[in-house]
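One thing: mind reviewing this one?
=====
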Amino acid sequence: MIKPIKNLFTPQQVQALRNLIAQGEFEDGKNTAGWHAQNVKTNLQWLGNEPITHELHQALAHILTANSEFTSLTYPKKMMPFIVSKSTNHGGYGNHIDDAIMHNEELVRTDISCTIFLSDPDDYQGGELVMTLGGIEMEYKLQAGDAIVYPSTTLHRVNPVTSGERLVALTWIESLVSDASQREILFDLDSARKAIMQQSGKSNEFDLITKSHSNLLRRWAVT
C-alpha cells in the first residue's frame, strides 16, 4: 500500500537535519544510478564526511523506527543507509523501479521505499513524486516533515523541479513480511484494534483482533 505519514518530523527536527546536510556537498546523482537509470536521473546526491553522515543517518533512523505508524506499515528487518537527494534547475528522476537488491554491509531486499520530505511544497515548483499503479498516476507533494512509504515494486518518478529546490531523504526497507498484501492486512488489523482501544478500551473485540493480528504476523514473518 502507498501511505503518507504526516508530521513524522517536527519543524525543529527538519531544521536540524537541514543544518547537518548544509555541512556536506552534492554530486551528480548519475554517479550512483544503475545502468537502466542513467538516462533518467538528473538529481543531485549528498556527500558528507563520516561523522556528519553517521549523525544524519542515526537521527533519521531513530525517528523513523520510533514511529508506531511506520513500524506498523513496514515491520522493518533491515534498512539501507539514507540517501539525501536535491532536485533543482529542472532536475528530477524519470520513471523507474528501485533495485530489487541493494548492498550495504549485507544484502538488503527492497520491499518498501520511503521518501521523507525536507522542503516545504511552496519552496519549489514541480517535483511531484508520481506513482503509477494499475495504469493510474497518483501525485504526492507533501509538507516538510512528512514521509511516504510505498512498495518498491511501484513504477514511480519525480517530476522536474522548474523553480526552487526539492530536498528529500530516502531509504529502502527489507520487511519481516515480504508480501505487500499481507502487510496491508496486518496494518488494517492494527489500525482497527487501536481505534477500538481508543473508543472502548480493552474489550473482547480488541482481544480477538489482537489475537488474529499476532497469529498472522507469526505465520507470515520471516526472521
Notes: The mean pLDDT is 95. The first helix runs from residue 11 to 21. The two ends are 22 Å apart (CA to CA). The first strand starts at residue 3 and ends at 5.
